[in-house]
Amino acid sequence: MPIFIISISGSYKAEVSIRRLMDSRKDMSFELEISSNSFTYYRYKNNKDLTIMNSIILPNAIKYDGSQIAPLWAYSMGIKGDSIVIFHGPMDVTFENMKDLEDEKAGKTIKGDDLIHFIVERFDSPASMQLAYYMQRLLIVNIRDVLGKHGIKTTRNGDDLFVDNGKLTVSIASAGVTSEKIHCGINITTQGTPHDVRTAALTEMGIKDWKAVAKDIADNFVREIEDIEGDIVKTKSL
Question: The CATH number of the domain where 89 resides is what?
């Protein structure tokens, strides 16, 4: 699976994982559009012009404050189409960006000094809150599977993963008019997490290379989406 390092305007870099929708096809090609300040997207195409979900790792730390779950956040950076965008950095979700009504009502703080952040956007017309939550659970299960391959045993309770009763992840799903959105954060460190919540972190389990883990998770997730889309186009309706 080729990895491209793209440097835009001499400063912006991103790792882009390119995946084939159908590995057996030999007539597929990809094309890249570049805007004035960032890359936009990779697209594989064959005779049916099939498009896949983009997977992008941003190298620089970004603070997650909840605004990134807004529709078209990836597009604001020039990333078009369905995507999973990964970065690391602190988290402190502001009250106005909180989407979970129970968390909002309880006045909870959602924060940490350093996490891996996954922002997923899938376009649909109309978008579905229900599908957003189904897709969120799929992402969480993929994270659990990948961490297991890295020797980290987790337990899942809904959309949360735990290690020895320590909360390892935070996640939310929502939907707008045209797309479903997911945010999932995995603690790299327990520093800065709420004092009233027992937490776990990747560094405690010997994980030093967050990018390698994040890439494995994104690879798995995109393969699952591709498999689902592939099954849809080959199945007869009732």
Answer: 3.30.930.10
Question: Is residue 109 included in any domain, yes or no?
Answer: yes
**CA proximity to 3, closest of 60, 42, 52, 47:** 42
Does the residue 10 lie in any domain?
Answer: no
Beta-bridge partners for 175? 180
Q: What is the pLDDT of residue 59?
A: 85
**Pairwise CA distance, residues 92 & 174, whole Å:** 18
Let me know if residue 28 belongs to a domain: no
Q: Which domain holds residue 89?
A: 61-233
Q: In angstroms, what CA-CA distances link 33 with 80, 118, 119, 124, 149?
A: 10, 23, 21, 22, 35
Contacts of 99 (CB under 8 A, 6+ apart): 66, 69, 172, 174
Q: Tell me how far apart the alpha carbons of residues 178 and 180 are, in angstroms, rounded to a whole number.
A: 7
Which residues of the chain register pLDDT less than 70? 1-51
Please, which residues bridge with residue 120 across strands? 84, 182
Q: Which of 3, 73, 48 is nearest to 230 (CA)?
A: 48
> 1, 18, 56, 50: which is closest to 230 by C-alpha?
50
The rounded distance, in Å, linking the Cα atoms of 198 and 67 is 26
Number of domains in the chain: 1
- pLDDT, tens digit (0-9, with 9 covering 90-100), for 98-157: 887 777 777 788 999 999 999 999 999 899 999 999 999 999 999 999 999 999 999 999
- CA 59 to mean position of chain CA atoms: 14
**pLDDT given at position 8:** 37
Whether residue 26 is contained in a domain is answered as no
Cα(194)–Cα(196) distance, integer angstroms? 5
